[in-house]
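Hi team,

Filling in the usual template for the complex we talked about on Friday. All components are listed, including any nucleic acid strands or ligand strings, so the model treats them as one assembly.

SUBMITTER: L.P.
PURPOSE: interface mapping
COMPONENTS: three
RESIDUES: 816
SEQUENCES:
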Amino acid sequence: VLVSPVSIDDVFAALTDLRARRPLVHNITNYVAMSVSANVLLALGASPAMVHAVEEVEDFVAISDALAVNIGTLSPPWVEAMHKAVARANALGKPWVLDPVGCGATPYRTQAAVELAGLKPAVIRGNAGEILSLAGQTGANEGKSKGVDSTAKAGDAVAAASSLAKRTGAVVAVTGAVDYVCDGQSQTAIETGHALMPLSTALGCSLSAETAAFTAVRPPREAAIAALAVFGAAGAAAGQKLSGPGHLPAEICDALYAMDRTTLARFVKFRS
Amino acid sequence: VLVSPVSIDDVFAALTDLRARRPLVHNITNYVAMSVSANVLLALGASPAMVHAVEEVEDFVAISDALAVNIGTLSPPWVEAMHKAVARANALGKPWVLDPVGCGATPYRTQAAVELAGLKPAVIRGNAGEILSLAGQTGANEGKSKGVDSTAKAGDAVAAASSLAKRTGAVVAVTGAVDYVCDGQSQTAIETGHALMPLSTALGCSLSAETAAFTAVRPPREAAIAALAVFGAAGAAAGQKLSGPGHLPAEICDALYAMDRTTLARFVKFRS
Amino acid sequence: VLVSPVSIDDVFAALTDLRARRPLVHNITNYVAMSVSANVLLALGASPAMVHAVEEVEDFVAISDALAVNIGTLSPPWVEAMHKAVARANALGKPWVLDPVGCGATPYRTQAAVELAGLKPAVIRGNAGEILSLAGQTGANEGKSKGVDSTAKAGDAVAAASSLAKRTGAVVAVTGAVDYVCDGQSQTAIETGHALMPLSTALGCSLSAETAAFTAVRPPREAAIAALAVFGAAGAAAGQKLSGPGHLPAEICDALYAMDRTTLARFVKFRS
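RESULT (copied from the run log):
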C-alpha cells in the first residue's frame, strides 16, 4: 500500500487557509450534535448553519462552501432533504461529507447510509462498526457495533475502508484510538486524540462537520487528514487537562480556537 | 406503609453491574434533553442512542437493553414512534421508562402521557406537578405546575404516586428536594441532590434516561432507587463545587464518571 | 432623533421584577438553541418551556407569560405552529418576540420572517444582516450576511431598524459589537458584551428568549433595553474570565444568576 507523505506543516497551512476563508458550512445533522458541531465549527474558524427543510436546502447549499450530512437522528423528511442538498452540491461542484451514524444498527439506517454513500461524497467519516457495515463487511447486529458506538477497532476496518473508497470514489476516514484515512490507493494512520473522547457525545459528528469545513480549502484526502489531525490534537490537549468527560466539549473548543503549529506537532503523529 | 430496606451497598452494586454490562439505552426524548442525556449516560457507563423514526424504532428496541420515553417536545410522529417502540419493548420483555414532561400543561400533553402510562412502563419518573396530573389528582392549569416546572413539592405527590403505581403496575418516582420511589406497597424517600439542580435544564430528563439504564440491570424498584441515589449524589457532589448553575451538567457528568461508594454514602440518605 | 433616557437603575429594577414574577416563557425555537436558551432563562430567573406541536401551542400560550419565536431551523409544521401560537398570543394580549434567524439567506426563510414580522411582535431581535434583509434593504445573497452570521455592523442597520419599527409597530433590536434598540421615534445604543460572544452558537437566540422574558414585566422598548443590557453585561463578565469560547455559555449562565446592579454599571454603557 502506497502512503503519500503528509506533514504537520501541511495541516497547519490548511488550518490557516480555513481561518482566512471562514467557510460557510451547511449542516444537515442530528439533533444531538447540532449545538456542539456549531461550536466546534465556530471555534475552528468556520461559519456554521443548520438548515434541513426541503423548501430551502438547495438554496442554502448554493451559498455555502461545503455540506455535512449526518444521519444520526434520521427520518423520511430529513433523508429527502439530504438527497436534495447533495444533488445540488454535486451539481454546483461543492464538496460534501457523509457521517453514516449507526450504519448497521437497523435496516432503515443502513439503507439510508448506503444510498447516500453512492452519491459521490468527498469524504465518508465513521467509526469502525459503521464503516464495516457500510462497506458490506457486516450485516446488522453482527457484533461490530452497539447502537451508535463501535465495538470494533479502527484498524480492523482499514481494508473495508479502502474497498469502500474504491467503490464510491470517496476518501474514507475511520476514527478510533488510531484514525485512518484511505483513498483507495493510500492509507494514512494518525495517532492523536484522548481516551475520554468516546465518553462525550457527538464528538465524532463534530469531527465530520469539521471535515466538511476543511473540504472548502483542500482536496478530500488532505482535508480529511487535516480535520482528523486538528480535532485529535484539540482532543488530546483538552483531555490532558481533565479528569472526566464533562468539560471536554468546551475544552476542545478552546483548544481549536488556540490551535497552533506547536500543539499540532506535540499531539499528532502520522504513521505509514 | 411498608418500607423495604435499601442500602448504599445495594446502589453501588447496581452501578458496578451497570458499568460492567454497559447497556445500550434507546431514547425517544425531547430536543432539549438529547445532548445532556447522552452525556449523562456515557459518563454513567451506558451506551446511549437517540432514535425516533417510526421506520426504525422497533428494530432499534430489539438491539437495546432498555428504552426511555420522554414527551418533552412531543408531536404526532414522535408519539406514534413512542407507541411502536413501547409495544415492541413489551413484546420482547425489555423494560422501559416514561418521563411525562409537562403533564397537565395542555390537554394534548396530558392525553399522551396518560395513554403511555397505561402501556406498562417499568418506571414513571416525574416532578410533583406531573405525577399529580398523571394520577388524575389535578386537571390542567390548577396551579400545581408552571409549564414544565412544578410548583408542588414531591412530598405532596406521594399519595398520588402510590395510587398511580397501583393502577399502572409501574414503579413511580417523584423527584424534588426530596425524592420518593413508590411501588404500590412501599415508599422510599431519598434525600440527596442540590438546590442548583432545578436551574439547569433537562436534568430531570437525564435522570429518567439514567433510570432506564438501571432497569437493564435491576428490577424496577431497585433500578429507580439506584438511579435517584446515583444522580442525586452526582448533583450534590457537583453542586457543592459551584456558585452558579452554568457548569452543573458538566460537573454532574464528571461526578457520575468518578462515582464511588464513598461519595454515595456521603451524599445520599434513605428515609422510611 | 429623540432618545428617551434609560438608566442602569431601570434595568436592574426590571430584572428584580422578572425574578419576582418568574415568568413562564413559551419558546418555539431552533434545535441548536433550545438547550442554551432554556439554561439562560433559568439562570435569569424565568421558567422556560419548548413546545412546538400545532396540537398544543395555542393551549400553551394561554398559560404562558410571553412567547419567543425563532426561525433558526424552520420547516412547514413549525411555521404553522408559530402562526397559531402568535395568533393566540395576540388574541390574549400576550407579548411575543421574533428572532428572524438567517433572514435573507434563502427565499423560504425570508418569506417566513417577513410574514411573522407582520403579525405584531412586541420586539424583533436580529443581527445587522437579518434586520437589513427583513427591512427590505437587501435581497438574499447581497453580501450582508453569511448564512446565519452577519457581515454588516449593527450600526449600519439602524436606519433599516427604525424603518422596520415604524412599519411593523415592533421595537427592533439590532445586536452586534454595539447594540441598538429602535422604536420608530427613538434609538438607544448599548455598549456592552464581549468579542468572544459571536464564537459561541445560539447566544443571539438566547438573547431573544431572554427578551421575551422581559416583555412579561416591561413594555417592549424597556424590555428590549433591559434584555440587551443584562445579557451583554453577563457576556462581558463571563468573557473577561476566559481565553476561548468553550465555556462561555456556562459562564454567561453563572453571570446571569449572579447579576447585580454593580455588574450592570460596570459593563453597560448607554449612548445617545
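MY TAKE: The two ends of chain B are 9 Å apart (CA to CA). Residues 220-239 of chain B form the longest helix (20 residues).

Thanks, L.
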